[in-house]
Design brief:
Structural class: alpha/beta
GO molecular function, one term: methyltransferase activity
Distance between the termini: 21 Å
Strand content: 25-35%
CATH class of the largest domain: Alpha Beta
Number of strands: 11
CATH superfamily of the largest domain: Vaccinia Virus protein VP39
Number of domains: 2
Order of helices and strands: HHEHEHEEHEEEEEHEE
Strand order of the largest sheet: 3-2-1-4-5-11-10
Helix content: 25-40%
Keywords: Methyltransferase, Transferase
Shape: globular
CATH topology of the largest domain: Rossmann fold
Number of helices: 6
Protein name: Class I SAM-dependent DNA methyltransferase
Largest sheet: 7 strands, mixed
């Protein structure tokens, strides 16, 4: 078991309803096109597949997909959408769980590598990706850039969403490199709010590149979004692609 926090049944059951924007065609279209191109006609493995926001439509588009998911509750929601025969899911953590076969693509979306709360576990996640990849296969990670430049001296919180139904802000432990995402969400029509929070280990792009090198992967590409826009000093996130060298035979 890793240090990742487990999603509860209640959180899993409301996840899709609270992430409708991330499931929109505007978001998923470029994501699916990007991943399909990198899969190159082979099999794809999604680490932290969740409720299948990306994995299910990617499979329905014709890419064979398997998944690894720590939360049985999240996997149960996915299973309502698609059968095990079409999208098999192994229950376990993405740093150590091994599934049968090899893949031309392993991917992690929507900041999920940050669910691993130690550097060692994130390194093992890269090694696990390399273990599953065919020579020439790619590992893809979508991860936000830590917004630390928005922290004035003495302040530890940065808001990321302020709307009529949701208030979200992150607090930072700069020593441990951990952030806590706080959510206050309007709960029904009664005027009350539900409070949730989750811990994440943030990592810089250069740190991920070093993790990739430890795992025997080479950086191939880094862009600012799924549409291929350039990654710049003002980018709020990055999509990074690392490749397993052709000469690397067998498993890492």
């Amino acid at each position: 078991m890793t240090s990742s926090e487990l999603w509860t049944r209640a959180t899993a059951d409301r996840y899709d309803a609270e992430e409708t924007e991330m499931s929109s065609a505007a978001v998923l279209g470029p994501t699916l096109a990007f991943l399909t191109e990198l899969a190159a006609g082979g099999r794809a493995l999604e680490f932290a597949v969740g409720t299948g926001r990306v994995g299910v439509p990617l499979r329905e588009s014709g890419v064979p997909v398997a998944g690894i998911e720590l939360s049985e509750h999240m996997a149960a929601v996915l299973r309502r959408k698609i059968g095990e025969d079409r999208l098999p899911v192994a229950i376990g953590d993405m740093a150590t769980t091994v599934v049968p076969g090899e893949f031309t693509l392993v991917y992690l979306v929507y900041n999920t590598i940050s669910n691993l709360l130690t550097q060692d576990e994130q390194v093992e996640c890269f090694r696990n990706a390399a273990r599953h990849l065919t020579p020439g296969g790619r590992f893809v990670v979508e991860l936000g850039v830590p917004p630390l430049r928005f922290l004035p001296p003495g302040q530890v919180a940065v808001p990321f969403d302020v709307s009529g139904h949701h208030l979200g802000f992150d607090t930072f432990d700069l020593v441990e490199q951990v952030l806590v995402s706080h959510h206050f969400t309007r709960d029904g029509d009664a005027g009350g709010y539900r409070r949730d929070n989750s811990r994440h280990r943030y990592a810089w792009p250069a740190e991920l590149d070093l993790m990739a090198r430890i795992a025997g992967l080479e950086r191939e590409r880094r862009v600012g979004d799924w549409d291929g826009s350039p990654f710049t000093e003002d980018s709020a996130k990055h999509i990074s692609v690392w490749r397993k060298p052709e000469a690397a035979a067998g498993r890492a």
